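for the record, two folds in this file. i put them one after another cuz i was lazy. first one right below, seq on top, structure tokens after. the second one comes after a little note so u can tell where it starts
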Amino acid sequence: MKKIIKIALFILFAVAVTGLMGFIYFEQGKQTIKQVVIKINREGEKGFLSEEAIKRMVSNYDSLPNQKVNQINTQTIESAISTNPFVEIADVFISIDKDLVVNIEEKRAFMRIFNRKSDGFYIDHSGNLFPLSNNYTPRVMIANGYIDVIPNDDKINIYDSVYADTHLVDLFELTRLINKNKFLAAQVGQIYVNSRGEFDLVPLLGNHIIKFGTMEDAGIKLDNLDTFYKKALMSEGWEKYATINLKYKNQVICKRK
């Protein structure tokens, strides 16, 4: 008998709690949104996105603060914002204070590509392609020259088969290797793909060209370049050579001006 009473009391308690939570949810749903809070997460103060751009992506944005909580579809707002090519992740929710919070992770450019027609696009840290912006130009590695790539709207990653015969994967990997070396990352500003399909590096300091060649032994070549810069050019001067050739195994061959 006692066991039956305990079960009955537990059921009554569960029903009461469920009813109370339902009532609270119903009452909260009738409350109105106080304000819309937009948060754009990125590395610096400036970026591809602005609050005004986010507002334009959300239909009836100005009327949102007057709408009731139960009239807001956060998933619809997330979907609308996520269509923007500069948005990595969009998270929209209603806070305890009844603020509609729009939390956005902005895409981070890893490198900028210009094809043979000078059409440009970015590649992010995951290898995804996205367009240039008129509002912001980040300081990243630039690659140009004989690059025959036209971005495909349905294929947005460099590892998609449509880009298999292009230089995108090699350019991405070479940039990654350069960026691992802080000294070279600060020194090398551009990768040029020449007519033979080999890579030339263009430094930010010094009027010379670095003939890198193919990706074979890429890590060793960059180590040799790092050593040469620190031991030779920093003592002899940055303007002494016209070319620095890394194409030959374990050698750095320079041509004077």
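(here's the note) second protein begins now
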Amino acid sequence: MNLKLLALTLLTSLSLSALTVGETPKTVVVGGDDGGYVKDGSAWSSSSIKDKVYVMFYVDPDEKDVNEHYSAALKKKKYRQKGDFGSIAMINLAATWKPNFVIEKILKGKQKEFPKTIYVKDKNSVLVKEWNVADDASNILIFGKDGKLLFYKSGRMSDADMEKSFKIIEANL
């Protein structure tokens, strides 16, 4: 009987932390030793995902090119000019063998090159632990203006995934 209770408790806790399309993920803060904004090092909170349609790239630096085709197609759509649209690039520094100081230098350059994108360092895989986002991967998440998750894909975006994501963005701008 105790084994059944333990299994039920484990399954319940996993489902509470997992992302569910159509729901607002639990609030997560990435700050201090866990990372934070690239621009100033302050803590980032998922509660800031609101009032705009956000596309979040949660990426292992070793997988940074997996969805470059999607990023390029997204830029061509010029959604920022069409409505309330934002982008977040959160880098899972714990997922790579590369030294943090090297990646952080690259991220500071990216932040200057793309000032409208929110860059966040996740030094301890916080979203992997708290939202059950895939580790060692390239993840794409789309959130509505109310903070609800509208789309989630781990791995390479197919043409069908891309088309679906664009329709979701356009329907929610």
